[in-house]
Amino acid sequence: MTESAREGIDITRILDAPPEKVFAAWTTPEHFAAWYGGDAEVPLDRVSMDVTPGGAWSLVIVVPGTEMPFHGVYREVVAPEKLVFTLKDASAPADIEGETVTATFTERRGGTTELVFQQRGGNLTAEQYAAAEDGWEAFFDALVARLASF
Fold first, then answer.
1. How much of the chain, in percent, has pLDDT values that exceed 70?
2. 7-149 has which fold?
3. What pLDDT was estimated at residue 5?
4. Residue 95: strand, helix, or coil
5. Distance between CA 127 and CA 139 in Å, rounded?
6. pTM for the full model?
7. Where are the alpha helices (DSSP H) in the chain?
8. Cβ neighbours for 103, distance < 8 A, ≥ 6 positions apart
9. Comparing C-alpha atoms, which of 13, 64, 7, 20 is closest to residue 41?
10. Residue 31: which residues within 8 A CB-CB, separation 6 or more?
11. N or C: lower Cβ tally within 10 Å for the chain?
12. How far apart are CA 87 and CA 96, in angstroms?
């Protein structure tokens, strides 16, 4: 796929934690706030998660001088194997559902988990997808650190 035809993000990581722990890091406000946003602050009082199909989620990433709100709706929740949810930021048009994020958590030998991450929707330019992928990579680095701490 050429960069100009890019329509999403695909990332695979092996995490040193079992799927139950990885799933908890994605679905518990205090854990999600600790890694989503990478090094940026995500105040716990600005995180809301109803981790059920049709349930809403939202949070705000705070960097000096700027607040970046994100929100969406859970489409599929299969603990501890899979999450599918929509993702929108403040710049997204109100009339679109947003991007769709799919995260699967597959148990591997030695108590590790293969995280397969996809973001689709076609709502971003190739440059925006590239920047979002860099952001997710930083988030996943923070996820690794969070998994080691609980």
1. 97
2. Alpha-D-Glucose-1,6-Bisphosphate; Chain A, domain 4 (3.30.530)
3. 60
4. coil
5. 18
6. 0.93
7. 19-27, 29-35, 126-149
8. 26, 82, 83, 84, 115, 116, 117, 118
9. 64
10. 24, 25, 146, 150
11. N
12. 10
Residues near 24 by beta carbon (within 8 Å), at least 6 away in sequence: 31, 80
Residue 46 burial class via C-beta count within 10 angstroms: exposed 0-12, middle 13-18, buried 19 and up: middle
Angle CA(30)–CA(9)–CA(88) in degrees, nearest 5?
Answer: 55
How high is the pLDDT of residue 1? 43
Mean predicted confidence (pLDDT) in 81-86: 98
Q: Give the confidence band of 59 by pLDDT, cuts at 50, 70, 90.
A: very high
pLDDT digits (tens, 9 = 90+) for 16-25: 999 999 999 9
| Token reading at 91 | 């710049």
